[in-house]
Specification:
This protein has helices at residues 12-23, 43-49, 65-77, 98-107, 162-168, 180-190, 216-233, 237-254, 258-272, and strands spanning 2-8, 29-36, 55-59, 84-89, 92-93, 112-121, 131-134, 141-143, 152-153, 157-161, 194-205. It has 274 residues and is an alpha/beta fold. The protein folds into two domains: 2-205, Alpha-Beta Complex (Spore Coat Polysaccharide Biosynthesis Protein SpsA, Chain A); 216-272. Mean pLDDT is 88; it is low at 209-214.
Length: 274
C-alpha cells in the first residue's frame, strides 16, 4: 500500500479538498496529514474538515518542508504494510487514478527510484512539468525540453519506494523550502536509481497558495536553498551564485520591489560570511 504524506499549514480548505480527492483514489491509500505548526486553528478544526480516513500528525512548530514531510514519512514506514510513500503538496487535486498510475510507473522497472508527474494549473496556478534540468554553471533549474532526461523531479508530487526512502532518509532537512527536491533527486540518482515521469498523469496544482510571488521570505528561502545546494553539489559555490544573485537584485530594482532586493542582498552577504 502507498501512504500519501500531505504537509498542511494554516489553509484548512486547501488541505480538505486535497484529501477529499485522495480518499476517492481507486486503490487503497493511507493518508497522513502533517500539520506543520499551524497557529490559526487547532487539531479539532482540522479533524472536522478532513475525510474520516485521513490521519493527523500535529507538529508543535513550523519545521520547514523537508522536516515536515520526513515526519510523515517516518510514521508511514513504521507500518510494514507500506511499500511506498507519495509526498504531495496540499494545494493539489488528484484524479482517482493518480496513485494507481504512479505506482504502475514505479513497479514497471526495479531501477526506478523516484516518480513524478506533470502539473496542470488550477485556480490561477501555473502548469508545470515534472522534470527539470540544472544548469552546469550556476546551478539554476529550468524545465526539461521534449526528450530530455530530468536532473530532478519537482517536489509537489513525488512517489518513492520503501527501499529508496530507507537508503536516503528522505529529504535533507538542512533545506527549508526550495531545492530539497533537487537534492533528493540527485541522491536517488547517486544510488543508481532512475527518475521517471509517470506517463499520462496530470494533477491539478493551485500553485503559490501559501506564498505570494513577491513575498520577501520566498526570495530569502530560495536564495538559502540554492546556496545549500551549490555547496553540496558544486565546486566554487559562492562564485557560481554571484551572477544569478546580481541579476535577481537588478530585476527587483527595475520592478521597484525594493524590500525584495534588500532581502536578497542581506541574505547573500550573510551567507558569504559563513
Amino acid at each position: 500500500m502507498t501512504a500519501v504524506v500531505v504537509l498542511h499549514y494554516e489553509r484548512i480548505a486547501l488541505t480538505a479538498e486535497c484529501c477529499a480527492t485522495l480518499s476517492a483514489q481507486d486503490v487503497p491509500t493511507r493518508i497522513i496529514v502533517v500539520d506543520n505548526g499551524s497557529l490559526s486553528h487547532g487539531e479539532p478544526e482540522l479533524r472536522a474538515a478532513l475525510p474520516e480516513c485521513a490521519e493527523i500528525m500535529r507538529l508543535p512548530s513550523n519545521v520547514g518542508f523537508g522536516r515536515g514531510m520526513n515526519a510523515g514519512m517516518r510514521a508511514a514506514l513504521a507500518d510494514p504494510g507500506i511499500d511506498s510513500v507519495l509526498f504531495l503538496n496540499n494545494d493539489t487535486r488528484c484524479p482517482p487514478e493518480t496513485v494507481r498510475a504512479m505506482r504502475a510507473a514505479l513497479e514497471a522497472d526495479p531501477t526506478v527510484g523516484l516518480v513524478g508527474c506533470d502539473m496542470e494549473g488550477a485556480g490561477g496556478g501555473d502548469s508545470a512539468p515534472a522534470g527539470y534540468r540544472i544548469g552546469r554553471i550556476f546551478g539554476y533549474p529550468r524545465p526539461c525540453r521534449p526528450g530530455e532526461a530530468p536532473d530532478y523531479l519537482q517536489g509537489s508530487c513525488l512517489l518513492m519506494p520503501r527501499d529508496v526512502l530507507e537508503a536516503t532518509g528522505g529529504f535533507d532537512e538542512d533545506y527549508w523550502f526550495f531545492f530539497e527536491d533537487a537534492d533528493l533527486s540527485f541522491r536517488v540518482r547517486r544510488l543508481g536509481r532512475r527518475l521517471v515521469v509517470a506517463p499520462g498523469v496530470r494533477i491539478f496544482h493551485y500553485g503559490s497558495a501559501t506564498m505570494a510571488l513577491d513575498n520577501v521570505r520566498k526570495i530569502e528561502w530560495f536564495r538559502a536553498g540554492h546556496r545549500i545546494f551549490l555547496r553540496k553539489w558544486f565546486s566554487f559555490p559562492l562564485l557560481r551564485s554571484m551572477p544569478p544573485f546580481a541579476a535577481g537584485v537588478a530585476r527587483c530594482l527595475l520592478q521597484r520591489r525594493f524590500a525584495a532586493a534588500a532581502a536578497s542582498v542581506r541574505d547573500f552577504f550573510s551567507a558569504a560570511r559563513h
